[in-house]
Amino acid sequence: xxxxxxxxxxxxxYFVFGHGYSAGHxxxxxxxxxxxxxxxxTRDKASHLAAHGLKPFVFDGxxxxxxxxxxxxxxxxxxxxxxxxxxxxxxxxxxxxxARPGDPVLRWYENEIxxxxxxxxxxxxxxxxxxxxDHDGGWVDETAEVRPVSARSRERVxxxxxxxxxxxxxGVPLAILRLSGIYGPGxxxxxxxxxxxxxxxxxxxxxxxxxxxDDIAGALQLLAERRLGGIFNVTDDxxxxxxxxxxxxxxxxxxxxxxxxxxxxxxxxxxxxxxxGENKRVSNARLKAAGYVFRYPTYREGxxxxxxxxxxxxxxxGLPVPQA
Length: 324
What we know:
The protein has a domain at about 15-185 and about 210-235: 3-Layer(aba) Sandwich (Rossmann fold). The protein contains twelve helices and 13 strands. Mean pLDDT is about 90; it is low at about 1-10 and about 85-100. It is of the alpha/beta class. The N and C termini lie far apart (about 55 Å). About 40% of the residues are buried.
């Protein structure tokens, strides 16, 4: 792909579609003045972000939003963190006549991105290692065949292809970040232990990779600043059985781990069961070769750093919480 010359700008200007858990942690590392805008799905969240100096736009994927096209015109960096297809706000009716497949950003702003946005220098797209599907526990890297099993993973593959075409038309690098299971503050085994929802399902040979949200933010920072394109697995060093991770969290919190439950006898939702139908070990060698050094290379370092959530798990179990 022939890339257009990078404009002589001294300051990066970011626009983020989808200010969720992962993208929100990345945005928190930026100077709010460098953020041209972020999208959210509710007015309440927009009000909260505006109070913290950001410029939020309410975008549901079903309609264009006033002001986004102008913000895209000024942006040098574009981050996409919204799923393909229709996803309504929590509590709203999902599906129906208004539901449409495909990437919601390209649905409304492909022309502005592919043919406009004169300052654009880099696009980042947050995807998932789910696009690889099942590889029977074998190692996969970015050259591996994609074998999407679920509908959501097939939609991701289609969205990746669509963004590659848009970036090629515009002539800017596109970084596709394929993320493993995301954890971090407020979203981890300690939280599940505290709420009583932690389970230790045992399926022989099953492993998953994980990624701390701070490493997602760090990888984005490196790729965006260096304007690197390509596909990158953003995942930790150690694919591990999920029951081991819960046991390790329980050990840190000094509370009893839930008993092991055979996978075959467990009652699971279809979505939860589908996750266990994909077994692979995901390599992060390409991201390391690009210069990224992981802050939390395995779940052990990641969980050890989540002291506030560990304390809440201890408190929920009726144990004393260490004083700082």
